[in-house]
Amino acid sequence: MRLVRDWLLPVVLAGAQLAYWPGARLGGGGPVDPELVAGLVATVGCAVALGWRRRAPVVAMGVVLLAQALGRLAVDPDALLVIIVADAIALYSVAVRRPLRIAGPAAAVAYAQMAVLGLVVYGFGVTFLAEVLLGLAVYPVTLGLGRSRRRWHAARAAAAERLAAAEVDRQRAASTERHRLARELHDVSAHHLTAIVVTAGAALRLADRRPELVAEAVAFSARTGRETLTALHRLVAVIRSAEQQDRRPLEVRLAELADGFRRLGQPVRVEPDPIPEGQPELPPAVAEAVYGIAREALTNALRHAPGSAVRLRIARHPTSVEIVVDDEGGVPGKAAELGSGRGVPGMRDRAAGVGGTFTAGPEPTGWRVRATLPLAIPTEPAGGPRWRRPSWQQVVDGLIVLGALAIAVSPSLPVDGLDGAGSGSAGLLVGLVMAAHTVPLLWRRHRPWAVLAGVLVTAALWPLAVVLVPLPGESAEVLVAGAIAEFVAVYAVAGHARPAPNTLLAVPITALSLAAALTASAAVDGSVAGQRVQPDTAMTPELGLLFTLIFVLPGWLAMAGLLTIPLGAVWLLGTVLRRRRAGVLAREADAVARTTAEAVEAARRERARIAAGLRAAVLHRAGQVVTAADEGRLDVLLEQARSTLTAMRGLLDTLRADAGAERRAPQPTVGAITLLCAAQRTAGRLVEASVPVAPGPLPADVDVSAYRVVELALAAGDPGPIAIDLRYGDGGLRIVMAGVPSATDPVIVAGLRARVGALGGEVTVDVPAGRLDVWLPTPAPVPPDRVGPVGESVGPGRVLIGDEEVATSSSG
């Protein structure tokens, strides 16, 4: 297909040229005619060069110009009338496929060559000037049309990129929504639940010395627990949106945030810079990012450096806002158990989401978090509006108007020399009239009906011009070249006017108006095609009316009928191209809209899936926190808060975005182990699992850890067969995995022991047999075997918080 597109036009062009000239001379005998050889070489050279116009347009145009130069210098100028358009075709290809810095000089070179060859062939005279004017019309219009086509191709490429971006968004919609919800869940768990655990733990530790703290901790936990439930229910209902964000001033929200941390014993000093005079508030997205980063940084300070002084500074700059959080608590060598490792990535994501930068790291005085976020507030340049470079669409319109004007003026040149009587005034008058006739075409894309009306109205000046200044030759033949403006205007109406069905009216209206202008001009001048249309003797008014009815009116109607055919063809071309363009744009828009809708649906499904997991794993435990707070049982409250936090962390672990593909990992529970093994079998691994129903509710940490142990062992990559057997008894859950030799690697075993050991469990390894035996304690009720900032278990029902032993509740 590409071969046909490349060579069909050159072959047809060369065939038409050869049929026109030299024609029958190709088969004649006799000596070789040098003129014939030169004509054949020029024709074949142009055709071959045009065949490569899409692959190497600049080279093709160079060859065409050389071949045309040979033909025009060696052959009669009238012999190569067909192949002479090859340079315009080559220039069009250059304009379509090369930037302006190449296409512009190429057009100048082609025009210069035409002018030089015309001067050599014709000498300085009327014919030379007519050719120069014709070139002034052809080359700029060709360049403009080529640039317009290039813009169309660029727009289609941009549309393809938009569709590709929408497709990428569709593929990533679920993971993006999962990542967003994970960040929101982390905010809830890190801020609300951590605050409850820290407050309740401190109150329990100091209960003997300061019993009033117990009541304060219970009240704080009840209030914060309800806030947590509200936030979780909001996420479950999927109603969080931009409209529900806090719209209070950022300074007020930061002050309230700092007060909350001060009540937790964290001294926080806020230093927001005042907003410069005359500048608006921060954009909502930027303000939300600043608040989120501040909240996360203060939460990390509370978690890793409790009691240390923290300074929160907000600095407003002309084009950005900077947030800096310094704490003096030093850098912990090991993250506390309550940390999930998502704080710093979450802050970095918030900064990147608004185009900002983020850093976090140790400083000589402690730990520093710094983020710089652009404001992206457009500002007017100083000194008022600047001159804007015209768009390529405006340049193309100007070139078309220039070409139409050159074509309209060229027939007015005197045929008997430049010094003929009245030639100067005639040329000036025709130039003014035709300028007024063609200038409205500049607005043909945006006001096509108004442009058509302007063109038709200015055509009424033609009879007046004939009366004022005698034109060289017959006036109708001189002025008919100006009708190109009517054809361009009709094309513009067909291609751009609304409503589209009414554009057909432009054809009869233009035909009648144009025919009237031409007929009136001929009647005033008294001749059409060299034939007198008025009698030599003076006529009475009655005879003048009769003459008009007999000669002028039929001529007007006949001319209007003739003009209807080419005007209708132009209208049809504009309509077809308009529908084609509209169809392409509609298909592109539909494709993007359809892909976007699929992305929205994928995000909705992901939200529903996460909401279901949130209801199953977290909401019930969070409600128990509020219940324990209402009952005033601080030890149970602490236990349930830690259980809820563990469940939340387990849920967050399943929401980590997989960069390569969409994941549908089950929620981390013992019951989900069968789903995990089924997914492995789908991937081609031989994995079998025996998972009995638990005899009762499992502690959240055991429920999650059992799933993670199996997941970590399977991640070692053993092909199988793998057998996984779960058993309940002896106050614990035993997990036996056979056929996993790779999982007995010391690094993997160390990770398993770290997780299991935190719960008081054990890991037994049989390396030769490739077997793992894991035991997790499941006491009833569910005591937190590991609690406190670091956590040490000192016996059943008792834990060490700080430097004091605290008894846990004996009822669930």
Automatic annotation (TrEMBL):
Stretches that traverse the bilayer: 7-24, 36-52, 57-73, 79-95, 102-122, 128-146, 395-413, 425-443, 450-472, 478-497, 504-524, 544-573
Keyword check for Transmembrane: yes
EC number: 2.7.13.3
Gene3D superfamilies in the record: 1.20.5.1930, Histidine kinase-like ATPase, C-terminal domain
The organism's place on the tree of life at top rank: Bacteria
Residue ranges of every copy of the Histidine kinase/HSP90-like ATPase domain listed in the record: 288-376
Leading EC class: transferase
Family annotation (Pfam families): HATPase_c, HisKA_3
Coiled-coil blocks: none
Name of the featured protein: histidine kinase
